[in-house]
Structure formats: structure tokens, C-alpha cells
Amino acid sequence: MSSLPRSLHALTAAALCAAVALGPAHLAAAAAPAAAAPAAAAPADELPTADQLKAALLSANDLGPQSGFSEAPPQSPSPGENPSPVSGCDALSALLNSHAGQPTPAVPHAETELDGPGGSPMVTESLTAEPLDKVNTDFAKATDAFKTCTTVTFDAGTPDEVTLKVSPITLGDRQDAPAVRLDGTIGGVQLNAYIGIERFGTVGMAFGFFQRDESSSQLASFQYRTAVAKAERTLGTKAGSTTPPTATPTPGTAV
């Protein structure tokens, strides 16, 4: 970590986590607070449970025993932390700054962060279940937001500030799955990150990848595909599908 200021790494990591710690529904709400009234909720037993979503997330073992990844402990925002560390593009900034909102207990949700040796690379993933109509609308809004930005600026509230170039990219096998690549440098250190969103019927997936001193998208794409394949296998529905997952909630498990 000595080659990268800790405050900037923490900021970038936090911003990426913010983008993926909330499902597409919550991201879209931040980008468009004046949205129409939410669709009527589907019966709770039609949504996967939080435990099922957790089982569908990537684990360190999924990334390979030799990868050196480990699961990071849950973290809470620090007192006085900059609530809006990202600027430069209203749509994408709203997504990245949306960590002020939190999923409600009625919305099944699970998330993880996997850190490589020394904190690079870093992988984040979240899965959030909501009624199908809501996911359809939110996924469309998130897709549009990913198409509008060319740069974003990360500001840690210190001299450690960096502007990253934003470029659309295809991370997986589905061309319609929205994803962006972020590139920049600070103090001669190369920063590279990827954010992708996918949906599995009533479940939205948000994926983030951060690395330093590297520009190849090969590892990010591989791990994104691994995340998609595990979600498909565990939830019982294909990426991009509007068909609700076929996985049956465990009897007696709250959603």
C-alpha cells in the first residue's frame, strides 16, 4: 500500500463499495429522487431470502485457492466522512454517492467485499431482491446513467483528489449488461476500476473491481463472469432474464 496514499485508496474503495453495496433499485432512486410512486410489492414468498442471496455471492474460494483473496470485515462510515466524495457527472455521481441510503428490512439484500494481497485487487458484490416491475424500471435507469459520463472526480477532503476517465465496457458475455471502466493516476500510481450491474429476474447484482498499477480488464472480466455464473446457478435463472428466480425460499426463513 505504500505506493498509493491510504486516504485515496480508502476513498476509491468506499466509493466502489457504495456503488455495489446497494442494489440497482437504490442506486436509481439516488439518481432520480422524483421518480413515480413505487410499484405494488409482490408477495414476499416470491422473492429469494437474504440467506439465499448470501449463498449466491462470490466467496474467496470461488476466486481460486491461489488467488490470495480474503473476505473483508463489514465496515461502517467513519464520523465526519465526506458524504458526497464523487462529482463531475450528475448521474454516475448520484450512484456512487448513494451510500447515504440503506436497504429496508423488507428488501432482501446481501453483500461482500473480497480483498487481494495488500488490498489490490479488490472485488465487491451485492445482490438485492425486489418486485419484478421495480427491478425492470431501476435497471433501465441504471443503464442510462452508465451511458452519460465521461469523467468523475473522487475527493477525499484532502489533497488526495483524482479525476477518473469513464468508459463503457462489456465485462461479461451479455452485451446489454451495463458496465463502466474508470481510469486515472495519482502521484504516478495507476488506478483502474470497473463497475457492472446485472439482473436475474427479481434480483439485481452490482459488481465492483479495483486495482492499482495495472490496466488490464482480464481479471475483472473473469471475476465478473464467475459472479454471474454463481448467481445463475444458485438462483436458478439466467443473467438478463425477467423471469423470477426458481430457487425456493427455505421454509420458515424470513424475507
How does the SSE layout of this entry go?
Elements: H1 6-21, H2 24-31, H3 50-56, E1 70-71, E2 86-87, H4 90-96, E3 109-115, E4 122-129, H5 132-146, E5 151-155, E6 161-168, E7 179-186, E8 189-200, E9 203-212, H6 218-235
Antiparallel strand pairs: 1-3, 2-5, 3-4, 4-9, 5-6, 6-7, 7-8, 8-9
Helix pairs in contact: 2-4, 2-5, 3-6
Structure description:
By secondary structure, the protein is an alpha+beta fold. It is 28% helix and 24% strand. The protein has six helices and nine strands. It has a nine-stranded antiparallel sheet with strand order 1-3-4-9-8-7-6-5-2, sandwiched between helices. A hairpin with a 6-residue loop joins strand 3 (109-115) and strand 4. Helix 2 (24-31) crosses helix 4, helix 2 (24-31) packs across helix 5 (132-146) and helix 3 crosses helix 6. It is globular, with a radius of gyration of 17 Å. The termini are far apart. The model is unreliable at 1-45 and 250-255 (pLDDT under 50).
Summarize the structure.
With 255 residues, the chain is of the alpha+beta class. The protein is built from six helices and nine strands.
Share of helix, binned: 25-40%
- How are strands sequenced across the largest beta sheet? 1-3-4-9-8-7-6-5-2
Mean pLDDT over the residues: 73
The protein's oligomeric status is single chain
- The total of beta strands comes to 9
Radius of gyration: 17 Å
Q: Report the sheet-strand fraction.
A: 15-25%
Compute the number of helices.
6
Distance between the terminal alpha carbons, to the nearest Å?
A: 40 Å
Looking at the structure, what is the overall shape?
globular
Order of helices and strands: HHHEEHEEHEEEEEH
